[in-house]
Amino acid sequence: MAIITNAPRGTQDTLPSQSYKWQHIEQTALDTARLFGFREIRTPTFEHTELFARSVGDTTDVVQKEMYTFEDKGNRSITLRPEGTAGVLRAALQNGLLNDALPVKASYLISCFRYEKPQAGRLREFHQFGVEMLGSASPVADAQVIAVAKSIFDTLGVTGLRLEINSIGCPACRAKYHQALKEYFYSHQEDLCDTCKDRLEKNPMRILDCKSPVCAEIAKNAPVVLDYICDDCKVHFESLQSNLDAMGIEYVVNPTIVRGLDYYTRTVFEFVATGIGAQGTVCGGGRYDGLIKMLGGPDTPAIGFAMGLERLLLVMEQCGCEFPPEMGCTMYIGSMGPKAALKAVELCAALREEGFYGECDTVGRSVKAQMKYADKLGAKFSCIIGEDELAQNKAKIKNMKTGETQEVSLDSESFVDFIYGGTIDEMVDYTDGLIDLKISQMNLQKKGEEDE
Ligand code: ATP
Ligand code: MG
């Protein structure tokens, strides 16, 4: 039975009491990116394995060790997406997005799958928000993409992230660097892990990214790519920095960040948190000018980033970020008997039509139990409808915090008016701000309409 009541290792549930945090992060990310012109793209959860092997690169940990790959019933090799860029590029090519005005700007919100050793901030199913900008080689684009991430962190109130940038040059300057790296790593060949021994010939830059402590120690003294980049790449990197300066975005140059594949070019960057443990990289991105062509598309420069939302949430909780409160229950309408229950249903519907959370009994509880439940929901107001109330067509609405009551006609209009009505000033003191905000906004709007 345990297999039924335990989720697979490395996966997580987001429970109803926690989902408002995710909604806040997701909405903020999408809205913020929209201010830079990025619109959401949705692509399939799985793609042909070949797409990831080619675009992520078959010398990477992701492709070599971490993919969830299976054969479907039609004998196709399918992989659950380990990241977002490949699917976006595939969709852009398949749907001719690059034939339109460039750059194409797309954002995405996805679950990703990687077979890794689960730990804090490292899961087998995790979530990413990312953006891609296709069709600009200019360093202005790099800076704008970085600014999207920065702006999301700022809007969420995240502090203490360090932006680290680097340039890994272009294929022209890469050759010289590869040569220097190979020479260096060959001199430490015996100590490298088996995977890295393999990478030595094929892709020495990946060794710089290896998680094995021994390899990481060796990598510390390796030649750095910034000493090898050509003049064009230097100018590009300097211009990126002027653009970041112009937006007041602070950064440090970290010459050890790499994305070791040929189609990754020039800018690479990370936002790193100190204090959430080893899994400190919340966001990683960079330029991939050669990738679209490599996938069979037109020669199109591009840049993007992806942020890990589980890690982002960890950072937010650690630095005490505030989440907007959930909308609480505006009114619980209790009832006694079937006729009154129908009335409660009708009045709740009217409240909801105005955008308020109205609740009534859906279980068949006693009145006493209903009121206990209203308390548990944290309802702002409650009332009980019984024989008497139906006969007089009136009910007493109780302010659950102060205990004050007010008699109101048993019809939709009167109930809605009550919510909007004279109680506003005292309600502003309430803790769950969302309802108050909504009411005061609606009142302002109404007042504006009346003034016109
Ligand atoms: P790491 O070096 O931590 O393994 P990565 O280089 O594999 O990260 P990317 O492929 O650049 O990560 O993915 C972008 C972001 O997605 C990371 O910065 C991180 O925030 C998040 N991420 C990556 N893998 C995981 C995972 N297994 N669980 C949770 N978040 C992840
Ligand atoms: Mg990884």
TrEMBL record:
Annotated binding of L-histidine, by residue: 83-85, 114, 128, 132, 259, 263-264
Pfam families: HGTP_anticodon, tRNA-synt_His
Keyword ATP-binding attributed: yes
Organism in which the protein naturally occurs: Youxingia wuxianensis
Enzyme Commission identifier(s): 6.1.1.21
UniProt-listed SUPFAM superfamilies: Class II aaRS ABD-related, Class II aaRS and biotin synthetases
Cell compartment(s), UniProt: Cytoplasm
PANTHER family, A to Z: HISTIDINE--TRNA LIGASE, MITOCHONDRIAL-RELATED (PTHR43707:SF1), HISTIDYL-TRNA SYNTHETASE (PTHR43707)
Record's GO cellular component terms: cytoplasm
Predominant subcellular localization, coarse grouping: cytoplasm
Assembly information from the UniProt record: Homodimer.
First-level EC class: ligase
Biological process according to GO: histidyl-tRNA aminoacylation
Origin: domain of life: Bacteria
Keywords for this protein: Aminoacyl-tRNA synthetase, ATP-binding, Cytoplasm, Ligase, Nucleotide-binding, Protein biosynthesis
Gene3D superfamilies, per the entry: Anticodon-binding domain, Bira Bifunctional Protein, Domain 2
The name this protein goes by in its record: Histidine--tRNA ligase
